[in-house]
């Protein structure tokens, strides 16, 4: 069910303007305070570690978590360690991934208000089993600060389109970087691997889904049933990226942050059918042909894209907020 806050689309969002696809009118939509720090003067004197504790405390109200995260972006966020990113160890396992075909109609109907079409969900079928080796995955998506260091060190021209005029947004240092290409994400992982001597890369599609769901078939990293307070999506989010890790109730079973919402995350795989499945040439496949899969949803999209099993990709338009996170071979 939608709430009074929840925008409604009821049409294929790819046929609409960006604002209409987000369920927003052409007029200004206020989300959050005009001055996010004004109501929290006690945080101004807090040290970085204390601010992290507030930002990642699910018992704190969102406004206070957001204020703490905003301050961390200005004073230096200790969770950002560019050459040694915090990571979760994911154990080897045989896991069940994907979606049972009998559930396609129900999932489509649940998200009909977001303009979801049945063929988009059919790409998640069938349920299949995969044997995955142990790996590590970053606790957070790659941030603006980390991506800046990559650009400085390499002289790359792979600028994020979200950096207006190519200018680094210093006040958003601890926000996920967006929008970058899949090739830029690969280049970042290769650069960091050379710089550190470690084996960084993007996660495979199966690894990403396992890290998000724990391999138990849950709909979202926090469990079954969409909860808008657990992720930065268009339903109740601020309509912009947020600092990493300020939706702690949305962490995955492995303690990984922001696998639902904030920015979409490229994985290592191009789109193709799952084992035993059929290729679905939906509008994304028809428009782009071969494309890199992205997972997790974003601040510009509805909660349907935040489902653990949802497969997506990039269109060349601003509503597609594409970022990435690192995995590491062990």
Structural notes for this entry:
The structure is a single chain. The chain has 330 residues and is α+β, with helices and mostly antiparallel strands. 24% of the residues lie in helices and 11% in strands. The protein is built from nine helices and nine strands. Strands 1-4-9-5 form a four-stranded antiparallel beta sheet. A three-stranded mixed beta sheet has the order 7-6-8. The model has no long low-confidence stretch (mean pLDDT 94).
Q: What is the structure about, briefly put?
A:
The protein is built from 9 helices and 9 strands. The protein is of the alpha+beta class and 330 residues long.
Q: How are the secondary structure elements laid out?
A:
Elements: H1 18-21, H2 48-55, H3 62-75, E1 87-90, E2 93-97, H4 104-110, H5 118-122, E3 128-132, E4 135-138, H6 144-154, H7 182-196, E5 200-201, H8 205-213, E6 264-270, H9 283-288, E7 292-295, E8 322-324, E9 327-329
Helix pairs in contact: 2-3
Organism: Streptomyces gamaensis
Pfam families: FGE-sulfatase (PF03781)
Domain Sulfatase-modifying factor enzyme-like: 117-327
Tag the structure with descriptive keywords:
330 residues; alpha+beta; four-stranded antiparallel β-sheet; three-stranded mixed β-sheet; 9 helices; 24% helix
Weakly predicted, low-confidence segments: none
Distance between the termini: 43 Å
Shape: globular
Spatial sequence of strands, sheet with the most strands: 1-4-9-5
Helix content: 10-25%
Strand proportion: 5-15%
**How many β-strands, per DSSP?**
9
Query: Helix tally?
Result: 9
Structural class designation: alpha+beta
Largest sheet composition: 4 strands, antiparallel
Give the rounded overall mean pLDDT.
Answer: 94
Radius of gyration, in Å, reads 19 Å
SSE topology string: HHHEEHHEEHHEHEHEEE
């Amino acid at each position: 069910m939608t709430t009074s806050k929840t925008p409604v689309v009821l049409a294929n969002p790819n046929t609409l303007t960006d604002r209409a696809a987000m369920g927003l009118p052409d007029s200004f939509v206020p989300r959050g305070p005009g001055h996010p720090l004004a109501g929290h003067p006690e945080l101004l004197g807090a040290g970085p570690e204390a601010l992290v504790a507030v930002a990642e405390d699910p018992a704190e109200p969102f406004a206070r978590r957001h204020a703490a995260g905003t301050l961390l972006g200005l004073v230096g966020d200790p969770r950002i360690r560019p050459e040694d990113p915090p990571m979760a160890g994911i154990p080897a396992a045989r896991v069940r991934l994907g979606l049972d075909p009998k559930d396609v109609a129900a999932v489509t109907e649940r998200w009909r208000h977001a303009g979801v079409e049945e063929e988009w969900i059919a790409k998640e079928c069938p349920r299949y089993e995969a044997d995955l080796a142990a790996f590590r995955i970053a606790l957070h998506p790659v941030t603006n600060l980390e991506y800046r260091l990559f650009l400085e060190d390499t002289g790359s021209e792979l600028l994020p389109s979200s950096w207006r005029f190519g200018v680094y947004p210093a006040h958003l240092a601890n926000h996920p970087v967006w929008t970058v290409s899949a090739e830029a994400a690969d280049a970042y992982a290769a650069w960091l691997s050379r710089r550190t001597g470690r084996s960084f890369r993007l996660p495979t599609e199966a690894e990403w889904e396992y890290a998000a769901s724990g391999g138990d078939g849950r709909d979202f990293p926090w469990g079954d049933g969409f909860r808008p307070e657990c992720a930065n999506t268009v339903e109740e989010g601020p309509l912009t990226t947020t600092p990493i890790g300020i939706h702690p109730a949305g962490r995955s079973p492995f303690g990984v942050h922001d696998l639902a919402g904030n920015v979409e995350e490229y994985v290592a795989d191009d789109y193709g059918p799952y084992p035993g499945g059929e290729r679905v040439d939906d509008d994304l496949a028809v428009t782009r042909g071969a494309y890199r899969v992205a997972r997790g949803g974003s601040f510009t999209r509805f909660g349907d894209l935040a489902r653990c099993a949802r497969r997506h990709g990039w269109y060349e338009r601003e509503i597609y907020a594409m970022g990435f996170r690192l995995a590491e071979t062990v």
